[in-house]
Fold this sequence. Notes:
Layout: E1 5-16, E2 26-42, E3 46-50, E4 55-59, H1 61-81, H2 85-93, H3 97-110, E5 116-122, H4 132-147, H5 154-169, H6 175-182, E6 185-189, E7 195-198, E8 208-212, H7 220-228, H8 232-255, H9 258-274, H10 280-291, E9 295-298, E10 306-310, H11 314-323, E11 328-329, E12 339-342
Parallel strand pairs: 3-5
Antiparallel strand pairs: 1-2, 1-12, 2-5, 2-6, 3-4, 6-7, 8-10, 8-11, 9-10
The structure holds (3R)-3-hydroxy-3-methyl-5-(phosphonooxy)pentanoic acid.
Amino acid sequence: MIIVITCSAPGKIHLIGEHAVVYGEPAIIISVGKRAYISAEKSESVKIYAQDINQSGEFSVSEVKEFAEKLQQLWDNCFETKNFAPLYSLLKNEHLGHIKAMIAKTMAELDINTPFSLNISSEIPIGSGLGSSAALSVAVPKALSELFRKVLTLEKINHVAYKIESLAHGTPSGGDNSICCYGGALWFKKGTPNIIEPLHLDFTMKNFVLVFTGIPKLTTGELVSNVRSLNPEYRDSRVKQLGMYTYEMRECLAKQDFTRMKERMNLAQELLAELGVSIDAIDRIHTAVKEINGGAKLSGAGGGGYMVCYHEDLQLLEQTIRDLGYVPEHVELGVEGVRTERK
Ligand code: PMV
């Protein structure tokens, strides 16, 4: 009998704290009801089929193992020189580079030496700040551990997912993979160890809408490194202020103080714009939503992608967004993290 394992992990939004989280400030990250799915079964070689981009590849186990070693050496060099461009360019130019890297890293971390085939499909738009790569980074180790009957804690899956994310983004905070792994809403602070606390948002979140502002021209790694190359004094004061707003946001959520919550969203957006990660479309939507007493900010790395907006009057919010030529999207928030779909 052929055993097929299907696992999935959700995407995410950053309610607040993106970019500042890279410098040790906290972030509030919430899972969204769009998921990435991985189906895995044993096979005679390592086969990948990525449905959404309609691409496939077939590799031997030793080829994938060599790729894992090459990537690790390159990551180490890039870390030393503080320049991850060579790693990003290798992954971009290699056929199925990112997916192959996820598989290679998982095989190395979980000591898997037997071939398998993976079918990948995702509801999460690629490169839009909704955590498409983080969801896969979590779902791949989950599916392969289930297929090879390795009992892994969520913590271990998250650890492997972070290693995978590091190949794609250099030195990410780890917030994205954590929310895709644990689901719900998280208070995340990078450190040794990371602080990861579930937030129980026991109010209805239906007044949040997402707005897509276009595919970012720059990757997360590039946007993060642009922020890093700002004048340190200019950057650090804004990062610190973003951290303050995140602490205040946590209080607002606990007290269900939506007026202050919207203000924190808007203030965070203005600081993110000062850090250079906003674009005209985001600024326009932010200004219009703020004018009607709503809250609106980019979510994730920025440079485009999804925005998160809030207003008590949902109709007014949606009309304001539509009047600017954009489409308000509803998505479930605070959904379950990584899970097995079917055995
Ligand atoms: O890649 P995105 O758009 O999900 O954003 C990542 C969030 C950042 O704070 C910008 C980077 C990080 O490592 O946390």
